[in-house]
Design a protein that fits this description.
The protein is 41% helix and 17% strand. The protein is an alpha/beta fold and 293 residues long. It is globular and about 55 Å long.
Length: 293
């Protein structure tokens, strides 16, 4: 099997490559069909996914069996002030990969986001729920999802939430660093979601790509919490002396509107390859035990 990974130096892409090379994730062994897979990793410097000719040329040259699109413009506030760039990368990039992918009959995994939902209510969102994004980031990602559905016949749209991994920047590393440096921090308490470890996401992506169970999948940690609860648990597990102070969204300075409730339900995983996502507290504890801080 030949797998092309875009966004290969990002948080998810780089860890995905690491897991394939190791042959296992924290959840267990990866499918045997992937053990000896040829991995072609492309960063944004190697491949501009907004340029269709470049994308098409590369895919015809490499002829991968699977393309995993982990490339995205994920700066939520930055998307508000760089709207054209957000739509070029998150929407047109997905479209270009979808068309080129379909031309050679390859499978496409496209990483989506919980930000495509309204953020209203108190019931976990399922894959069939209507998208109603409230930010430029969410709107650009929703358009990317729509393009994948329109232009690719063999797709897996994988939608995680509140992602953190061993590589790159994320909420967990930020909290650990700030707690050590300042001894106190304010964290929003009126936004809820599911913290999700990249190990769990990758494990399920690799389970999916050896099947023909195409469609949309929510792929998030079990359970829900607020950003405040998440931060407090990080501090507790890391045993750092730090006061965590709750605040409201209004008190937190932000350009983009964040969803108040973006908890996801992994219904389609349960119905197909199985939902082995860990409770968010368990996955976080494993992460904290494995990192230096």
């Amino acid at each position: 099997m030949k797998i092309l990974v875009t966004g290969a130096k990002g948080q998810l892409g780089s860890q995905l490559i690491d897991i394939i090379n190791k042959g296992k994730s924290e959840l267990g062994c990866i499918p045997k069909e992937i053990i000896n897979a040829e991995i072609i990793g492309k960063s944004s410097k190697d491949l501009d996914i907004t340029n269709f000719n470049k994308v098409n040329e590369l895919i015809y040259e490499v002829k991968p069996d699977v393309i995993i699109n982990a490339a995205a413009y994920t700066n939520v506030d930055g998307c508000e002030t760089n709207e054209d760039l957000a739509f070029k990368v998150n929407a047109l990039g997905a479209k270009n990969l979808s068309i080129a992918c379909d031309n050679i009959g390859a499978k496409l995994v496209h990483i989506s986001t919980d930000y495509i939902f309204s953020g209203e209510g108190n019931k976990p969102f399922r894959e069939y729920d209507k998208a109603c994004p409230q930010s430029v980031y969410g709107k650009s990602k929703m358009m990317g999802d729509d393009f994948v559905k329109e232009f690719c016949s063999k797709y897996f749209i994988v939608r995680p939430s509140w992602v953190y991994g061993y590589n790159g920047k994320n909420f967990v590393y930020t909290i650990l660093k700030t707690a050590k440096e300042k001894g106190s921090l304010k964290v929003v308490k009126d936004q809820k979601g599911n913290p999700t470890n990249v190990e769990d996401i990758v494990h399920h992506i690799l389970k999916l790509i050896v099947t023909e169970e195409y469609g949309v999948y929510h792929c998030s940690g079990h359970g829900e919490c607020s950003w405040y609860d998440f931060a407090a648990k990080i501090i507790e597990l890391a045993n750092i002396p730090c006061e965590v102070i709750p605040c409201t969204t209004e008190e937190y300075s932000s350009i983009a509107k964040r969803p108040g409730y973006s908890v996801l339900d992994n219904m389609m995983l349960r119905c197909t390859v199985g939902d082995e996502m860990r409770p968010w507290e368990e996955a976080l504890e494993k992460f904290i035990n494995n990192v230096a801080y």
